[in-house]
Here is the input.
Amino acid sequence: MSSFSFAAESSGDLPVPTATKEKLRKEIVGAATKNADREYIVGYRDIIYVEIYGEGSMAVGVEAPASSSAGEGDENTPSFLRGRGTGAEVRMDGRVSLRHIGDVYVVGMTLSQIADYLKELYSSIYENPSVTVTLVQGNSRQYTLMGQVKTPGLYHLDFPLTLVKAIAKAGGFNEWANNEVTVIRQDDHLVPHEEKKGSTDKKKDKGGQTFEFDYSDFLKGKHLEKNIIIQPGDVIVVH
Here is the structure.
């Protein structure tokens, strides 16, 4: 079972604003440093831990961590399902159940937005509550790997992953592969910095984009920029 360290407090409880942190980070690291990664957006089946300082967990029906006897990480068994961690699961209706306030819709929100939202809701119960929201397990971010690899299937995207690493995670090419790969990406998963690259092998189609990658070229040190970062919802087809 994968662990995460994403967490956020309600902004009203933070002594140092986020903008100040980013400004100081750039001053220390240098002007050439990349922009900070985008905040995690909560989706269906994610597990979040909601805590109010001094009151403990607000999750209803908290489950103890389960061992992943089957699922991704086991040999040759990548799976959509994983053992559930301690916390509140985002159900298929996009809601989590929390003590005192009932069901709350959280899909599409960042952790800091959820913390701010819950702080307002819990202010009717507690005086100036300090709310922390932590991502325990990210189950909503997946990509699909199909075709001529040893272990095709649906994989969880737990950390930044390049195309080559995604193929390696699936056991690599099988004996019928010709080393050519296509990545299909829907519009709602497009990433701004990739749109600006203007790669000649990126095709704009109605409803999304396709990226072409040749592993033989990659081994020769050619077109290394085509080893793109995988995004949630990507479909990788190995020919």
Q: What stands out?
A: The chain has five helices and 13 strands.
